[in-house]
Amino acid sequence: MNEHSAAPGAGTYTDPVRYPQSAPPAVRTKRAFILLLLTLVLPGAAQVVAGNRRLGRRALRVTFTVWALVIAAVIVALVNRALVIDVLTHGWASFLIMMVLALLAVGWALLFLNTLRIIRPPLLQRGARPMVAAALVALMVLTSGSLAYGAYLLNVSRQTFGSIFASGPSLDPVDGRYNFLLMGGDAGEDRTGLRPDSISMISVDAKTGQPVTFSIPRNFQNALFPTDSPLHEIYPDGYNCGDECIINSLYQTVTENYADLYPGSADPGAEAMMDAVSGILGLDVQGYVIVDMDGFSTLIDAMGGITINAGGWVPITAGEIPGTNRHYPPDGWIPPGTQTMDGYHALWYARSREFVTDYHRISRQQCVQQAMVAQMDPATLLTRFQAIASAGEQIVRTDLPQDQLGSFVDLALKAKNRTMERMTIGPPDFGSAADNFVTYPDFNLIHARVQEKLAASNQPAVPAEEPAPPAGEAAPQEAAPQEAAPQDGSDAGIDSGADTGGTDGEAADGTAIVEPPQAEEPAITVEYLQYLAEIQDDATLGALLNNNGECSPG
Fold this sequence. Notes:
By secondary structure, the protein is α+β, with helices and mostly antiparallel strands. The protein is 45% helix and 11% strand. β2 (195-205) and β3 (211-216) form a beta hairpin. The protein is elongated, with a radius of gyration of 34 Å. The chain crosses the membrane at residues 32-50, 62-83, 95-119, 131-154. Residues 456-521 are annotated as: Disordered. This is LCP family protein.
């Protein structure tokens, strides 16, 4: 007997679920929503109780199989999260999962349509029909739509990962750490080739995910190369040909003149930079990531901006005045305080160094890196995945192997919950701007300090304790409160100023000293800063902007 045949004793109120003809209108409406709910929670159940039982049983088998796979995936993710990510990012595995999601989306949608047929809308009251239809559409969007969107994201990720990441053997941690070189490449129209003006080495503990960033100034000189580097024979005493051999020139020098020293490499310049940073820090750099700074703003916009607590005013540098080494007055100013920056302002915040030093810029770049890591949360990835993936595909190049992407993502998730430690191989961590440390670096000191930083980064923070007094010596007593000043204004050993008619004390001969009134410093505004730039008062601007390297993620 099928769903359209009359039951024995048709017309009697026996089974309103399967035979709703004789049921009251309120029961029919309730029945409709129950069947929709069953299709939502247990696809196939509505067909078993009120429709085609064979179809329902098949759908239930698929449902239980999918639930079992989901539960198994959750258990594996709790035990080995990297394995699940590896499967999702593997080319063929992700393709199969994408196809399964697409088929499930279509199948679930067909079940909802079949449930609508079982509900038999003509039997419903006119007022109930729009509500049932609206519920059906909403549930189809929630279920089939979500599965279809998941399949779409997997397809986008497959294309993105395939274009960004390399194919090659997996990397093993060195001394328990992964070390990646991050470079911000600036290949502007006024430059020959690519110059990595932002150079950072990120070292991550393979177990805990604790990250440490070592930033190297662009004007660092005399970089050493490890003995196993092909450049060691060319520069046995380091990259030391004078001011032309600052480290950010190495990339293009090797690309143009020594590419043959790195046969088979897709990017000899990047390989050379890895060797140089390895020699500087005394660590084995295992991979590189290059971000095109010209497209950096696109990635920030794709993320919806980043929030930075900026310490001081930062100029947006204007074009260079022809025939000089000066720039026109800034095109704008980024104010201090916590703010969400779009791509344009975040780019200038990270790259501006006008009126200040490279070390101010390095500090701001570190803050931008931290803000990006902190704000790349699951919600941002889910809602902006296509834009982020598209931007990443255009501006990121790396030699990191795609097959190890799962372990790297797992490592990034661990690092996200930890505070990133920072060190600059130059001021303020090594010497001062006047010491020329980056010109004549002490590599023994750098290597020792780097190891100390890594060792300290994984140590739990211990609250500072006051030192105990030496044996036989009493603990210092709390300072006695100062005596209150006499109420009548009389001298209590300190001149109050009232006795000299508002003067600032007396000279040795008794002559009253009167300081001239101090002029109020002008408020720091965009107009004032722009005025100083127009009159080329670099000294005052340098003093006012000296705090623009003090920042933190918002």
